[in-house]
Amino acid sequence: MASTLPNPPEGLCFHCLQPLPAHDEIKVRVDNRERQVCCYGCQAVAQTIDEQNLLHFYQFRDTSNPLQIPLLPEELQQLEAYDQEELQEQFIQRSDSGEKSTSLSVDGMTCAACAWLIEKQLQGLAGVSNAQVNATTERVSIQWQPDKVKLSTILQQIAGLGYRALPFQAATQEQDFKRRRRYFVRRIGIAGIATMQVMMIAVALYFGVVSELDQSMRQFFWWISLLFATPVLLYSAQPFYLSALRSIQARQLNMDVPVTLALLSAYGASVYATFSNQGEVYFESVSMFTFLLLVGRYLELLAKQKAIATAANLIKLLPATAQRETASGKLEAVAVHKLTQGDVVQVLPGQTLPADGKLLTDQAEVNESMLTGESVPVQHQYGDTVFAGTLNQSQPIRIGVEATQQSTVMAKIAALQDQALATKPRLAERAEKLANQFVKQLLILAALTFFVWSFIDPSEAFWVTLAVLVATCPCALALAAPTAVTGVVHRLNKQGVLLRNTDAIEALRDCRTLIVDKTGTLTSGQFSIATTHQLSQNYTAEAIATLAGSLERHSEHPLATPFKNLTSETASLEAVKVALGNGIEALWHHGQSQCKVRIGSPRYIAEWHPDALNHSPANVLLATADELLASYQVTDTLRDDVPATLSKLRQQGFKVIMLTGDSQANAQRVANQLDIQQVQAECLPADKLAFVKQQQRQGPVLMIGDGINDGPVLAQADVSMTFGHAADLARQAADIVAMRNDFAALTRLLDSTAKSRRILKQNIIWALVYNIGIIPIAVIGLVTPYIAAIGMSVSSLLVLANSLRLYRGSSGTDTPATK
Questions:
Q1: What pLDDT, in 10s, does the model give residues 80-106?
Q2: Which Pfam families does this one have (predicted)?
Q3: Strand partners, 514
Q4: Burial tier of 691 (Cβ tally within 10 Å: 0-12, 13-18, 19+)
Q5: Would the N or C end of the chain have less CB density within 10 A of its end CB?
Q6: How far is residue 549's CA from residue 560's CA, in Å, rounded to a whole number?
Q7: How far is CA 790 from CA 266, 454, 775, 785, 799, in A?
Q8: What is the second-level CATH architecture of the domain 321-407?
Q9: What is the pTM of this model?
Q10: 527-566 b/e with 16+ CB inside 10 Å = b?
């Protein structure tokens, strides 16, 4: 086939129209022809333009002034803009290893086959560490190494597959949703109007209303039906054709393949009958089938939007500007994305905090309902951490900025939500594979049906085959899993529970062993020093208090909190080492002398002083290498909702085990209050990990913890839960995060996931019963194409309606969790 692209004058580069070098001959293949270019840069750009199917750049550019022509198509220029660091700050997250990650929004993705194709393409790209694609939310969660691949290259790879991908911006999500809704509404409107007109004619023809008319009048009605059905086929049904083509490209057939075959076959046969005046026409089936399918897709879109709007709306709460203090103490209005760590901003009452940071005002009342769901304002003191997106309620406050944009807690919550929606529970994956296998078998069945009916009644063979294609299309089966999963994610969001790993939905069914940390999990985490005993007379009480407070300021452990406010004085320390789960060691300069000191658990101090284990019920000891300095009993109170929650769990058959690093005495005291029979105390992180592995030999384990030292066991457990206030490591390792920091979230989680499992199973069973049950009826010719269209659509709508039950009553509780 001859190329339609204009050739440059002899001796000029095909791409930039500059003179070709005298010696080097560099060529590139564009539009199936070899073209000569002046350098390797032009070669790379021309090859990209050809790969991205942007040949209109060469076809329509003005070549009258070679010095002024653009060197890149506008589409590629726009994508390369996303490589700018300043722009990336608004949507990119960076890991400690230097990798970047973001969420991309993809236009045109309609099914699992689309997701599979994009995922395989990206995973094969050098420099891409991970790519997860979710057809339900039309998002791509991607991690890449910026030194090996650029973001624009990733976007170009997706564009080369026929999809348009851009960094996901929560602020524009509503606009994107409205655009997609209009996309469906226009097509539904045309299909609906045409269906009404064609059905009136079909009723008149099929039920003998115009039986007395001659053949020419009958054919006239066929032509009118053709007139109305054609825009339905050419315009309204476009989404199904595009999806079918992409699934064939991915070599993974989806349900739109039989849909497309049915539509084109019915329309083609009806057109032939209209022109030849022989046979039957089914324009009403084409129109009605398209209309009902589009309505189902539109309702599915609405369900998706409900599920993903909760987390996305968090980011939209962030203000666009902030009042930053200058060096002279004046205020200046700046864009939030220009704030940096160390800036000081002022926030007036009624305004939203623009960034995470430390409170620099004595006290503040902050409404954190957008993070936790609790509307009661939280009282904060000087030095407390406050979060972007929360609402200042009482007085003007000053905040020292520590994190902005994608580094804020709110942005991380939204990222966790994207991660949850990007994963699929195993049951959903099995349903998706079953639907794909069903499509292949359906096509084989349709071919066999046509072959058999060609012998039985050749005039009916085509229409029976068409009815089989339509009636047995696994639309309901394809909708069964994603609608239920998005429904439970939405439901849990409303209940203040963030589901990070959707595999937990199914895994929770088999968990009947609950292992709980004590500190900050069963107890409130609001610690105080109940008793203090000075054990050395060589130092003053003030010196010991200063040393204890200075050491504990290097710790993030909850037990360290009450020590940090013992005194405002600071001890001279160096070579500070934190022993995770044990304590802190440092070199203390005191007067003219120096010595090693430790503060931590009795077992940690016993490495220097074996008699440290005899100071029960003290759970924190301070010592030098030569002597014990002081012992402390640090206590906190039980959470109010723990006793009732544990009682409900026992009724459901859970065995409760306490696993803690605290002393045996303190652990046993709490266990006695909560009637916990099995206690493992004084455990290091390695001990906890070994114990959880031991319990897993007897069955799946549900683990709840919130500390840094709980990270390994949370990752090891079959299902794990933590709290919104937990350490970053715990939040990253856990499958579920209770954003309201309440222990009762566990019962809401169990109830909601149990309901979602029931609905998911109901969806799959109903879809299979319908599809398998309709096969023999359709194959023997008892179902006409238009009845098949109604049956298939009603089946899909029933599945969707069943999944929407998860959206009702999402702020309360349901029936007790069951298997």
A1: 666 776 666 667 777 767 788 887 877
A2: ATPase-cat_bd, E1-E2_ATPase, HMA, Hydrolase
A3: 656, 702
A4: middle
A5: N
A6: 8
A7: 15, 26, 15, 9, 14
A8: Distorted Sandwich (2.70)
A9: 0.60
A10: beeeebeebeeebeeebbbbbbbbbbbebebbbbbbbbeb
